[in-house]
Amino acid sequence: MARPISLSTSGVSTSAVAPLCHFISPFSVSVNTVVTGTVTYSLQYTSNDVQGSGTITWKDHPLMTGATVGDLVEFTAPVTAVRINQTVGAGSVAAKVIQAGL
């Protein structure tokens, strides 16, 4: 079993990228966030190749866009990576990313 991937922000920033294996079927990824302080953030995902050198287009998850509290979301359609984008606040966001099948 693979360990959960930890992501975090502190102040207005973007977290590291958590690459995912989109070949696993069925695809199932959960992202659980915990907020400390006052923040506004979005969970972002992409279907682009984050290991390559091309342009990466990030999209906000519809259930975690402009979020201000911790939450849990799941992906069942394949994506290649996720990250946290904190746009407001001096607090922090911590996330655990777990992909089933690893």
Quick rundown:
By secondary structure, the protein is mostly beta strands. It is built from no helices and nine strands.
Shape descriptor reads globular
Radius of gyration: 13 Å
Q: How many DSSP H or I helices?
A: 0
Share of helix, binned? under 10%
Low-pLDDT segments, ≥5 res? none
Average pLDDT number? 95
Main sheet: strands, sense, barrel: 5 strands, antiparallel
How far is the first residue's CA from the last residue's CA?
A: 6 Å
Question: What does this protein look like?
Answer:
- It is built from no helices and 9 strands.
- It is an all-beta fold and 102 residues long.
- The strands form 2 sheets. Strands 2, 3, 5, 6 and 8 form a 5-stranded antiparallel beta sheet that branches.
- It has strands spanning 5-10, 13-14, 18-19, 29-36, 40-46, 59-60, 72-75, 81-88, 92-99.
Question: What's the topology here?
Answer:
Elements: E1 5-10, E2 13-14, E3 18-19, E4 29-36, E5 40-46, E6 59-60, E7 72-75, E8 81-88, E9 92-99
Antiparallel strand pairs: 1-9, 2-8, 3-8, 4-7, 4-9, 5-6, 5-8
Features:
46% strand, globular, 102 residues, five-stranded antiparallel β-sheet, mainly beta, single chain, 9 strands
